[in-house]
Write a structure and sequence with these properties.
It is a single chain. The N and C termini lie far apart (about 55 Å). The protein is mainly alpha-helical.
Length: about 70
């Protein structure tokens, strides 16, 4: 493989890794936001069913947040 092709392959790999890292970062951020909303709703004594509806978290996840 000549140097030009090697650089192109390397650039493509780096681009893919960067894209996946960005996607993962957004995913983590969304999950953290859901947790923050759930905590606020728990603080306001909202029912778990309502928290599930508005956050998309499971009842089990919300119970864990409540107990932590």
């Amino acid at each position: 493989m000549d140097m030009n092709k090697a650089k192109m392959v390397n650039d493509a790999v780096i681009s893919t890794v960067d894209r996946k890292a960005e996607e993962r970062g957004r995913e983590v951020g969304r999950e953290e936001e859901k947790i923050e909303v759930a905590v606020s709703m728990l603080d306001d004594n909202e029912p778990i069913e309502k928290i599930v509806k508005y956050t998309g978290l499971t009842a089990e996840q919300i119970e864990k947040i409540r107990n932590d």
